[in-house]
């Protein structure tokens, strides 16, 4: 059993010794095994393994058709049932992308290809990618999924919730976070400096997710980040990693989003209007529903008042619809 702790900063200490098998020893030196989930952040580890050019095994898992989660088999490998999981050649199980990267670099990067240029920056960016950006994209993903997959008529309420969350939280946070990364990268090729490093690997997943879901328009608003991403996908090791896996959303190009809700620099006002539209629709549906059932007059008048107020906010577009709707209620 390998009990040595992986070294976080390859510059600060020499990597653990690796016993290289001689021809008289066991026929094959044990290799690490990656437990890899389709369409997941584990794609980053396939990329790193390919960059290092080492021998490894992959066990691939497909997401379940029902809820797109990891299959229960992954729970047999790690108590969290999430990917990536790396089992070292010596049989030690490592979870968490940042820890797996640190282990792989410390153990196999003999040529210092990924040598950390500034370990404090590396730690900052690595934490930022996993903890800060992770919480942000999870929030956006949650409200997006609720707004897309809730049953009618709850879906209208969920859309309003998503728009409110964007308005008061995620739009600004995405903007601030991406601006921070754009400045951190500056004119360098990589976040690590001249050479690719762990921070680049860590940042690649959240940025893929954010870009491919159209939450940020990188081409338009963050051209340095868009160019950085292009440098990654052009790397032969990245391409080989994709071939070794079983599908990843990250193959999609960073798109120029046409979505009304794309969190571009000018979207605050649009976001606000969309919230109003969603609320307007929700009130209309409630009124329609309650017209069919006995409803106290005061409830209907409150809803009408709310609807009218919203229509005052949304100058123009809403007015005709409101007139139609009133006619419908009178009928
Ligand atoms: N913080 C972990 C996150 C691991 C994680 O959440 N993996 C996701 C894939 S992106 C997963 O396995 N999800 C499957 C599930 O939760 O069912 C890391 O950096 O490795």
Question: Can you characterise this structure?
Answer:
The structure is a single chain. This protein is mostly helical and 331 residues long. 55% of the residues lie in helices and 5% in strands. The chain has eleven helices and four strands, in the order βαβββαααααααααα. Strands 2-1-3-4 form a four-stranded mixed beta sheet, with helices on one face. Mean pLDDT is 82; it is low at 1-24, 257-272 and 315-322. Glutathione is lined by residues 37, 40-41, 69-70, 82-84, 96-97, 130.
List low-pLDDT spans: 1-24, 257-272, 315-322
What is the top-level CATH class of the domain at 119-251? Mainly Alpha
How many helices? The count is 11
Bound molecules: glutathione
Give the integer mean of the pLDDT values: 82
Largest sheet, strands/sense/barrel: 4 strands, mixed
Oligomeric nature of the chains = single chain
Q: Secondary-structure element order, as H and E?
A: EHEEEHHHHHHHHHH
């Amino acid at each position: 059993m390998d009990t040595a702790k992986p070294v976080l900063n390859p510059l600060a200490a020499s990597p653990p010794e690796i016993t290289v098998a001689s021809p008289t020893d066991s026929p094959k030196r044990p290799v690490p095994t990656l437990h890899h989930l389709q369409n997941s952040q584990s794609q980053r580890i396939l990329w790193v393994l390919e960059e290092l050019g080492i021998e490894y095994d992959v066990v691939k898992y497909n997401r379940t058709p029902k809820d797109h989660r990891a299959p229960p088999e992954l729970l047999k490998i790690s108590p969290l049932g999430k990917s990536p999981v790396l089992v070292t050649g010596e049989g030690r199980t490592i979870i968490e992308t940042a820890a797996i990267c640190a282990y792989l670099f410390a153990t196999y990067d003999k040529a210092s290809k990924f040598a950390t240029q500034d370990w404090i920056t590396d730690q900052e960016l690595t934490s930022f990618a996993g903890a800060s950006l992770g919480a942000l994209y999870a929030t956006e993903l949650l409200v997006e999924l609720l707004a897309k997959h809730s049953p009618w008529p709850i879906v209208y309420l969920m859309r309003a919730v998503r728009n409110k969350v964007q308005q008061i939280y995620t739009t600004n946070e995405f903007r601030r976070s991406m601006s921070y990364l754009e400045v951190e990268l500056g004119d360098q090729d990589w976040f690590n400096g001249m050479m690719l490093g762990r921070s680049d690997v860590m940042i690649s997943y959240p940025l893929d997710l954010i870009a491919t879901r159209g939450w940020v328009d990188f081409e338009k608003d963050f051209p340095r980040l868009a160019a950085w991403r292009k440098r990654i996908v052009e790397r032969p090791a990245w391409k080989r990693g994709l071939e070794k896996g079983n599908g990843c959303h990250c193959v999609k190009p960073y798109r120029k989003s046409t979505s009304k809700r794309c969190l571009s620099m000018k979207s605050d006002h649009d976001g606000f209007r969309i919230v109003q539209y969603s609320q307007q629709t929700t009130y209309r549906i409630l009124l329609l529903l309650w017209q069919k059932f006995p409803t106290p007059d005061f409830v209907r008048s409150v809803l009408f008042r709310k609807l009218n107020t919203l229509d005052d906010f949304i100058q123009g577009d809403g007015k005709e619809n409101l007139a139609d709707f009133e006619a419908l209620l009178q009928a």
